[in-house]
Design a protein that fits this description.
The complex is a heterodimer. By secondary structure, chain A is an all-alpha fold. Helix content of chain A is about 70%, strand content about 0%. Chain A contains eleven helices and no strands. In chain A, helix 3 runs antiparallel to helix 4, helix 4 crosses helix 5 and helix 9 packs across helix 11. Chain B is an alpha+beta fold. Chain B has one domain. In chain B, about 55% of the residues lie in helices and about 15% in strands. Chain B has a three-stranded antiparallel β-sheet. In chain B, about 15% of the residues are buried. Classes of the chains: A mainly alpha, B alpha+beta. Chains A and B meet through helix 3, helix 4, helix 8, helix 9 and helix 11 of A and helix 1 and helix 2 of B.
C-alpha cells in the first residue's frame, strides 16, 4: 500500500502564476496569451503520456495537437470542479492514444506491435541507455489498461484519485490494475534479462 | 512490495526523470496558435456580417414606412387639422432611443437634419405628400448617419424656417 506522502506527488504550481481555472476563463473570453500559457504549462506532460502510450514521437505530437485543439473547441465544456485540467487533458489524450493504436494495429499484426513502437521512436533508437530502452519496450507491450495506469501513476506521478478520474474507473480498479500491471511488467522484464537497475545520482 | 517490485518502481521513476525534458516540438504550438487566430477571425466577420444586413433591413424598413406614410397622406388629400398633424409625427418611422443602436453601431454619430423639399419632387419619386400649408413645400426631419444614408424620416412637427 502506498504511503500518503507518496500519494500526493502532483507538482504544485507556482502561486504567483495564474491558476488553470483562471487561465481557462480568460481563454474563454478570447485572450490568446492565456491559451498559449495553458499550452506551455501542460503540453510536455501530455506529450510524455502520449509517447509512452503509443511508443511513437510522431503519434505523440499528433495527440498533443489534437488534445489542445479539442480544448480550444470545447473550452466551455471544461468544468474545473469535476477534474483538474491536466487530468482532463490526459483523459482526452488517452482516448486518442487508444484510437490511434487501434488504427495502427489494423495495418500491422499484433505480434509486431513491440517492434513498431521501437522503430518509430527516434529518441529511443538514439538512446544509449539500453536499460531504459528495454523498460520502455516492455511497457509498450503491456495491454493498454495496465500500461496506462502504470504510466499515469509511476511515470506521470498522478495519485490514485486523479488516475481514476482520467480513466473514469473507481480507485479500487486503479489499485488492482496497477498491481497486476507491475506484475506483468516484471514478468516481461525478467524474460528479457531482468529488472533494470535505476541510475543513481553520484553528485 | 517485494524487492523486485521496489526495483521496478525505482527503474520507472528513473525513466520518468530521464524523460523530464521531453516535449512536443515548437511547430505544434505555432500550429495551434494559428488555429486559435483562425477560429477567432472566423467569429469576428460573422458578427460583422450579421450587423450589415440588420442595418440594411432597418434602413429599408424606415424608408418603406416613411414612403407608406407619405403615400397615405398624399393619396387621401384630406385637410390637415392641427390635432391630426400632431398625430402624424408620431406615426412616422422614427427610431426610439432603444432602437437607435440597431440602426447604427455608433448612435452618437447620428445627426438630425431638417430639410424642406418640394412635395411635387417627392410625388415624382412616388411619395405623394399632402401640402398642409399650400405652399408646395414639406418640412422633414431626417436622421443621417456618418455614411450619409438616412436612418429615419418624419414630417417636422413645426415649421423649420
Amino acid at each position: 500500500m502506498r504511503s500518503p506522502s507518496i500519494v500526493t506527488r502532483v507538482p504544485v504550481e507556482d502561486a504567483s502564476e495564474p491558476s488553470d481555472p483562471d487561465l481557462v476563463e480568460r481563454a474563454r473570453g478570447g485572450e490568446r496569451a492565456a491559451f498559449g500559457f495553458l499550452y506551455r504549462r501542460h503540453q510536455a506532460y501530455v506529450y510524455r503520456f502520449a509517447r509512452a502510450m503509443t511508443g511513437s514521437t510522431a503519434l505523440a505530437e499528433d495527440i498533443v495537437q489534437e488534445v489542445f485543439l479539442a480544448l480550444m473547441r470545447d473550452l466551455e465544456r471544461y468544468d474545473a470542479n469535476r477534474a483538474g485540467l491536466r487530468a482532463y487533458l490526459f483523459g482526452i489524450a488517452r482516448n486518442l492514444a487508444r484510437y490511434k493504436a487501434r488504427s495502427v494495429r489494423r495495418l500491422i499484426s499484433l505480434d509486431q506491435v513491440e517492434e513498431v513502437s521501437e522503430f518509430v521512436d527516434p529518441a529511443a533508437a538514439l538512446s544509449t541507455n539500453q536499460e531504459s530502452r528495454r523498460l520502455r519496450e516492455c511497457l509498450a507491450g503491456l495491454p493498454a489498461r495496465y500500461r496506462e495506469v502504470i504510466i499515469l501513476c509511476d511515470l506521470q506521478e498522478l495519485d490514485y484519485a486523479a488516475t481514476a478520474a482520467v480513466l473514469s474507473v473507481p480507485i479500487g480498479t486503479v489499485r488492482s490494475r496497477l498491481h497486476r500491471g507491475r506484475q506483468l511488467l516484471l514478468e516481461r522484464l525478467q524474460r528479457r534479462g531482468g529488472v533494470p537497475v535505476a541510475k543513481r545520482c553520484l553528485i | 512490495m517485494n524487492a523486485d517490485e521496489k526495483q521496478l518502481l525505482s527503474a520507472l521513476r528513473s525513466l520518468a526523470r530521464e524523460e523530464e525534458g521531453l516535449a512536443a516540438r515548437p511547430h505544434i504550438e505555432a500550429r495551434l496558435m494559428r488555429a486559435w487566430d483562425e477560429s477567432r477571425a472566423s467569429k469576428f466577420p460573422r458578427h460583422r456580417m450579421f450587423v450589415g444586413p440588420v442595418l440594411k433591413v432597418a434602413a429599408a424598413l424606415v424608408l418603406a414606412a416613411s414612403g407608406a406614410f407619405w403615400w397615405s397622406r398624399g393619396g387621401a388629400n384630406l385637410p390637415i387639422f392641427p390635432d391630426q398633424r400632431e398625430q402624424s409625427t408620431v406615426m412616422t418611422s422614427w427610431p426610439s432611443s432603444e432602437t437607435l443602436p440597431w440602426l447604427d453601431p455608433e448612435p452618437g454619430s447620428l445627426q438630425i437634419v431638417y430639410v424642406r423639399v418640394a412635395s411635387a419632387t417627392l410625388a415624382a419619386q412616388g411619395y405623394a405628400l399632402s401640402d398642409p400649408d399650400g405652399d408646395g413645400l414639406v418640412d422633414l426631419e431626417v436622421i443621417v448617419a456618418a455614411d450619409g444614408t438616412a436612418r429615419g424620416v418624419r414630417v417636422a412637427s413645426a415649421p423649420i424656417y
